[in-house]
Design a protein that fits this description.
alpha+beta; 4 helices; four-stranded antiparallel β-sheet; 117 residues
């Protein structure tokens, strides 16, 4: 999956990402800030590019709109597909930190741009 996602970033198809706020809290990691640079890795752990955060929004799962789903660049890029795939993801990962997904759970939604290939 990391190979697929990093390729979408390199192609310019994927310009957004999100995760549950609970995941950040469980890991004790500070939320990204506008201007933050991140190295994107492929499935082998090799760097593929550097991205820069251009926007951060905290919103409930149910509040993610079609534009953001499209910018995530995955599957058919529809909001329906985004909700289905992300719900399945959260069903897998959140129980590991003692949480269950809800439509009201807060997500950290990030927009970014590639600054180095």
């Amino acid at each position: 999956m990391a190979d697929e996602l990093s390729n979408l970033v390199l192609e310019g198809t994927k310009t957004a990402t999100c995760s549950a706020l609970w995941e950040w809290e469980a890991e004790g990691i500070q939320l990204p800030e506008i201007g933050a640079k991140t190295i994107v890795l492929n499935g082998s752990g090799e760097p593929t590019c550097i991205i820069e955060t251009t926007e951060i929004m905290i919103c409930p799962f149910s509040g993610v709109d079609a534009r953001f789903a499209y910018e995530e660049g995955e599957n058919d890029r529809s909001l329906e597909s985004w909700r289905k795939e992300h719900w399945q993801y959260f069903l897998r990962v959140l129980p590991e930190i003692g949480k269950e997904p809800t439509p009201e759970m807060l997500l950290v939604c990030e927009r970014f741009r590639v600054v180095y290939r």
